[in-house]
Specification:
By secondary structure, the chain is an alpha/beta fold. It folds into two domains: 145 residues, 3-Layer(aba) Sandwich (Rossmann fold); 158 residues, Glycogen Phosphorylase B (Rossmann fold), CATH 3.40.50.2000. It has twelve helices and twelve strands. The strands form two sheets. A six-stranded parallel beta sheet has the order 2-1-3-4-5-6, with helices on both faces. β3, α2 and β4 form a beta-alpha-beta unit. The longest helix has 17 residues.
Length: 323
């Protein structure tokens, strides 16, 4: 098929949406389809549209459906679609769900948070990641942890920094934060935190290879988001052999499992601090997190992602009705 893949993330963006779009384009090409990645639909004929974001890509999805009412449309539900926009902008977001032949999601818990009439359309696509080229070599002198994510409200980006503030001199914890500030205000907050907190360093927007280099050096990754549709950094960390401490939200539970031991209460600095100190001071606890993450690694292979896409495409080819 000729497939148009719509993503709201521009060509120069380094965020998760752009990363997902480029990886999916590669996978669909491997499945012998022709793929064109665009930020909006230009009206050119296409056999199938894949739109990332029910709300942000709503206009492209609506225009395509009106022009080609009998051709398949797949919409990826982002975290903000599921946990924000279907409530703040229900008319547009729910209409996108309605007109889609299939709804892609990135973790298995999404079914609990969308309207029942659309749950039969859901197909989980686990995001794959590549293992590190070499062995990990974390610092022995310090206990370094990383945060990988842009600075915006949904990410609660400074929670790990707050958690390591004013620790006793016996702690070796340090936080290295990789991610772009979405506003000047967030950049100012990160710089202010660095000035008052010698355990926190914000490195700003970085390239993919720099994230992988950080995974080779870190002991642990913290995902502090208050909403996630299925963070690709979790699959990247697990595939790299990096255990995770994550806020206890649906998007993390859907990837790490309901019995994962590394959750803390979202938004709680104190609970995160307790978890980080426990990881630092209890080697068996860190080893247990590593074991649990290793057990999830099979979910995030390129082979599995290809199979999930092949299955989804097979389904929509058989069933094109969307109402």
């Amino acid at each position: 098929m000729n497939i148009t893949l719509i993503t709201p993330a521009g060509h120069l963006a380094k965020n998760g949406n752009r990363t997902t779009a480029l990886r999916w384009a590669k996978i669909l090409t491997m499945l012998n389809h022709q793929v064109c990645v665009e930020t909006t639909w230009d009206g050119k004929p296409t056999d199938l549209m894949v739109a990332i974001h029910a709300w942000r890509s709503a206009e492209s999805a609506r225009s395509y459906r009106e022009e080609f009412p009998d051709r398949p449309l797949i919409i990826l539900l982002s975290g903000t679609d599921i946990y924000k926009f279907q409530h703040t902008h229900p008319k547009v977001t729910l209409y996108s769900m309605k007109i889609a032949n299939a709804l892609a999601c990135l973790h298995d818990e999404v079914r609990h948070s969308i309207p029942p009439q659309y749950r039969h359309k859901l197909h989980t696509i686990h995001q794959s990641a590549l293992p590190l080229a070499g062995a990990r070599r974390p610092s022995k002198r310090n206990f370094d942890i990383c945060v990988v994510g842009n600075l915006r409200e949904e990410k609660d980006p400074l929670r790990a920094a707050y958690a390591v503030r004013n620790l006793s001199n016996t702690s070796r914890l340090r936080v290295f934060h990789l991610g772009k500030a979405h506003t000047p205000d967030w950049a100012a907050k990160a710089k202010t935190e660095m000035a008052r907190n010698n355990r926190y360093r914000w490195r700003g927007e970085v390239k993919a290879w720099e994230v992988r280099r950080e995974f080779a050096k870190t002991r642990l990754m913290v995902l502090s988001s208050i909403m996630e549709g299925g963070a690709n950094v979790i699959s990247e960390a697990i595939t790299a052999g990096v255990p995770v401490i994550a806020s206890k939200i649906e998007g993390s539970i859907g990837l790490l499992g309901s019995d994962y031991a590394g959750y803390y209460e979202a938004g709680s600095t104190e609970d995160l601090r307790r978890k980080l100190l426990r990881v630092e001071n209890e080697p068996k606890f860190l080893a247990h997190l590593s074991y649990q993450c290793e057990a999830r690694k099979h979910l995030f292979t390129i082979e599995r992602e290809k199979k999930e896409w092949s299955s989804l495409l097979g389904t929509i080819n058989l069933e094109t009705e969307y109402f």
